[in-house]
Amino acid sequence: MDPALTQEQDEIARALRDVLAKQAGPEEFRLAAASAPGYDAQLWRRLAEQPGLAGLALPECHGGSGLGPVELALACEEAGRVLLPSPLLASSVLAAEAISACGTEEQHGELLPPLATGARTAALALPGTPAVALGLVPDPIPRPLPGDVPSGGGRAGGVQARPAGDGLWSLYGEAAHVLDGARADLLVVAAHAGGFPRSRTVLFVVDAADAPGLRRERGAGIDQTRSVGRVELRDVTARPLGDPALDASPALARVGRRAALAVAAEAVGAADRALARTVEYVQVRQQFGRAIGSFQAVKHRLADVYVAVETARSAMLYAAWSATTAPEDPVPVLLALAHALTAQHSAAAEAIQLHGGIAITWEHDAHLYFKRAAADELLFGPPHLLRARAAELSGVLAPTGTEATAAGGTRR
Hints:
This protein is α+β, with helices and mostly antiparallel strands. Helices cover 49% and strands 15% of the residues. It is built from 13 helices and nine strands. A hairpin with a 2-residue loop joins strand 2 and strand 3. It is globular.
């Protein structure tokens, strides 16, 4: 493995950073996040056109740029650096990856090009939190049957699906933590089908503009820059994504690995920016006749954060490279996400502490980075559970949860 980035990869990151710096600043992003859609639609379309952010990792035959996980990670790092409110994670990563993993060639040609050009957006509706539904953390609910998975709902709730004739299905249920769920043009819904004897997870496509029985509302989340919505489906007609007779759980695990990489990259970017702003501030803030950055205690604290951020960046890039060489191995990306979330929390917490009273004011950006750190851990898993999951999958710890009961073991 060559750890050095190529010239093209460097240019992608630099170009996106320049565009974000020129197109809008913190105040514009705040206004966009507080708007009804939760993001600047015009800016998103410009980013989709140049530098092609919306379809960066999608195939060229479907309107994308045809790049790989490393380029996607670099783009997400730049987006995370400015806490960009956009459909990048929900539409271009979660939903697009689900369509790519489960859809037929015909569905690829129909659904992916509008997402790649930014003309439409999509959201992936999962019961519970994405961390559990995508298999990033151990499932706390006992599930005796291998097919009874959290992503489909099952006895734990979620969305239920039953055939409605002519190849269509009827969906009934709800999902409470759907990224961009209140504003997306297209919903990809993970539903439980087959009842108890033939339990399985199936993905369905719902056009939000033509779906009687669909009700959506945006939630008041911790992080204003990441829109989370509640989706309710009351006998909504939907078409299956791919073959409804097949269990989509393995595909959702693949979606989870790609989402974990994107979130890790965003967290690294946010942590790096929070650290940089704190370093700038301690060099000008005077106390006892000298800059507070000259005090040894402050230097040590910022040095610890710097080490955490650089370690997280190395882990994230290694996970991105591993996604091209060993795409089925989830351990590198789980550990990268754990490192990144830890670094993001540390950098944001130190930013709050070292900025003093101004950090908790609404006008300052420090609290936005702290809220992003808290929200990411709630949605995508606390670091200790991510590490526990990686330890289980790598054989360091005995399996628990779904793996243990599926293998005939007992839960403790």
